[in-house]
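Researcher: Please predict.
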Amino acid sequence: MREKAVEQKLVQAVRAKGGVCWKFVSPSTVGVPDRVVILPGGHIGFVEVKAPGEKPRPVQEVRIEQLRGLGATCLVLDDLSEVERCAMRFNAHDYQRAAIEYVVEHPRCALFLDMGLGKTVITLSAIQDLALNRFEVSRVLVIAPLRVARDTWADEAAKWDHLSSLDVACAVGDAKQRSRAVESGALVTTVRQGHYSLAGGALRQGLAV
């Protein structure tokens, strides 16, 4: 399957949702994502389209990290089956609803769920409720392994339609990129394990960890 087929499917899916999927070109900047997606309600994101199994080039990785560091949604799409993750409806299972409620009601808690059972979307749903409905938290810092901090949280927030109000900034990269992400004011900021100095600074700026 060629990259063009994936890109055409993306354009069709976005149009079906009432949005636009424009080709994104920046003459003075190389490596920018292929498409900018604008969905009803003012939800905007960028998509780098690849043939199945193909990875972004180094310069494209830099642009993706730059956009995510600024709190923008930026996805890498290389599979037709993943097109719908640009905006999916979250229908929580009973255990997920129970877990969301438990996190909301307990300031200190842990989720012990197997891989693939939705720990990230559960936590993001609880954050959304605490921040935007109950106004009990203003900003949240997530400390995670590199790949999870860099990709998973931003991708999950962009994937589900009910989380469209959450902005996620990725504080991964050099010191300036990490500081810029923290200073962006995003509701959720992710940082890799080991960058505890950044976590300390984030706490001083009023982030919940």
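Model: The first helix runs from residue 3 to 16.
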